[in-house]
Amino acid sequence: MRRARVGPMREDMQYISGVLDELEAIVQDASGVPIRKGRAVVDRSDLLVMLDELRGSLPSELAEAEEIRRECGAIVAAAEEEAERIIENAHQRAEAMVPEAELTRRSQRRADEVIDRAERYAEEVAGGSRVYQDRVMGQLESWFQDSIVSVGESRQELSGVPASRPAPPPAETVDGEGEDRDWRVSSA
Question: To the nearest 10°, the Cα dihedral for 161, 166, 169, 170?
Fold first, then answer.
């Protein structure tokens, strides 16, 4: 990397400033053109000499800066082209992913339906098992009650007192795999 020349550049700028002051003096001292306000006649050769001196005294850093500015413009243009290419690729990939996204949405919807159906079925099974449990427990309760009555009658008979039993209520049945089962135990 080049180091900036502070001393010579300052001298160059002072010289350039002096040349600009001379140019200003030439224009100020120029004689005016009659009837044309704001116009003046300037010695062309003096003005061109001054401009050549001015151009020749411009620091080399200005030329380097112009070259850097051109390079920056080329870099920016290349970056813009690359950005456009990346955006185009992103659009193409997004368009390619749309069918995959639709397939994913349909699959998710189907999975949600299956889960919903399974949950409803589980609720039905749980409700049915509660009903079945209640029936079985009722049958067991009835069987134990009948057994207690039967034991009581047997005790009475053993003690010599004849037992009289009321007619039993109709037996409840529990459906089990298509067969009716009578859970009631007869007392003999």
Answer: 90
Q: How confident is the model at residue 110 (pLDDT cuts 50, 70, 90)?
A: very high
Q: What pLDDT, in 10s, does the model give residues 11-47? A: 767 777 788 888 888 877 777 777 677 777 777 788 7
- The total number of residues written for the chain in this structure: 188
Residue 83 pLDDT exceeds 50: yes
Is-contact 50 92, C-beta < 8 A?
no
Calculate the alpha carbon distances from 8 to 59, 83, 156 in Å.
9, 42, 137
Long-range contacts of 63-72 (CB under 8 A, 24+ apart): 64/2
Contacts of 174 (CB under 8 A, 6+ apart): 132, 135, 136, 139, 180, 181, 183
- Of 50, 30, 25, which is closest to residue 40 (Cα–Cα)? 30
Q: Is the pLDDT of residue 64 over 70?
A: yes
Alpha-carbon gap, residue 97 to 102, rounded angstroms: 9
Would you state the structure tokens that stand for residue 150, as one six-digit string? 């039967």
